[in-house]
């Protein structure tokens, strides 16, 4: 058996032992907390909007992602049901045409500063953006620095990301009054972000 195979076998064995210890320790499955939070927040929104006749009762929420942020990360999870302390921060829509850009990091150079990362004979050209373990990073329309993006020093690496939208657009799409064929054909997905105000109120 080669040395490489021995190391591979050792890593697999170590992973199995670690997983066994994890399961035997009885670590709680917190996925249920996230699922409960999402369901309760969407139920609260659905009840409020259907009562005001802003949405039909048959509204489908399956394509709505929920990001819920606790203002106090050290606090133990609180019950979500019946809470009025959650605040809707943003409504976002998935746009398959929105560009995802990659830009240089704090060193201001594509890839590693002073290195010819792609071995093309030119040091720090745009082709080196995104070099492994460099400080380059992605920007999307939701990032606070997106307005300062310089396309001449960046490049598009993908299309399809979330962009800022609003409740009116969501309600129009759900009620069927949004007649833009291009939007309907793309079957937009939605993301709602909430923040828990309970911790800040308690202070």
The overall pLDDT average reads 78
Termini gap: 63 Å
Main sheet makeup: 5 strands, mixed
β-strand percent reads 15-25%
Number of discrete domains: 1
What is the string of helix and strand elements?
HHEEEEHHEH
Anisotropy-based shape: flat
Determine the number of helices (DSSP H or I, runs of at least 4 residues): 5
Helix/strand/pairing category:
alpha+beta
Q: Determine the fraction of residues in helical runs and give it as a percent range.
A: 25-40%
General description of the model:
This protein is α+β, with helices and mostly antiparallel strands and 203 residues long. It has one domain (3-202). It has helices at residues 3-24, 31-51, 167-175, 181-185, 198-202, and strands at residues 64-70, 86-103, 137-139, 154-164, 190-196. Strands 1, 2, 3, 4 and 5 form a five-stranded mixed sheet that branches. It is flat, with a radius of gyration of 23 Å. The model is unreliable at 181-186 and 199-203 (pLDDT under 50).
Keywords:
single chain; 203 residues; alpha+beta; 5-stranded mixed β-sheet; 5 helices; 5 strands; 31% helix; flat; disordered C terminus
Topology:
Blueprint: H1 3-24, H2 31-51, E1 64-70, E2 86-103, E3 137-139, E4 154-164, H3 167-175, H4 181-185, E5 190-196, H5 198-202
Parallel strand pairs: 1-5
Antiparallel strand pairs: 2-3, 2-4, 2-5
Short description, anyone?
The chain is of the alpha+beta class and 203 residues long.
């Amino acid at each position: 058996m080669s040395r490489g195979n021995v190391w591979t076998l050792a890593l697999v064995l170590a992973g199995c032992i670690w997983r066994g210890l994890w399961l035997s320790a009885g670590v709680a499955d917190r996925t249920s907390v996230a699922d409960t939070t999402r369901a309760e927040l969407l139920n609260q929104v659905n009840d409020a909007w259907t009562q005001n006749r802003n949405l039909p009762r048959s509204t489908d929420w399956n394509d709505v992602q929920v990001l819920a942020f606790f203002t106090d990360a050290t606090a133990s999870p609180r019950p979500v049901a019946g809470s009025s302390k959650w605040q809707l921060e943003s409504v976002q829509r998935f746009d398959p045409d929105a560009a995802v850009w990659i830009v240089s990091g704090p060193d201001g150079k594509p890839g590693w500063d002073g290195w010819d990362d792609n071995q093309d004979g030119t040091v720090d050209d745009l082709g080196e953006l995104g070099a492994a373990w460099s400080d380059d990073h992605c920007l999307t329309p939701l990032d606070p620095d997106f307005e300062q993006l310089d396309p001449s020093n960046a490049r598009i690496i993908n299309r399809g990301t979330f962009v800022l939208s609003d409740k009116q657009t969501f309600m129009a799409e759900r009620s069927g009054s949004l007649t833009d064929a291009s939007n309907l054909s793309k079957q937009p997905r939605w993301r709602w972000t909430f923040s828990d105000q309970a911790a800040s109120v308690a202070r």
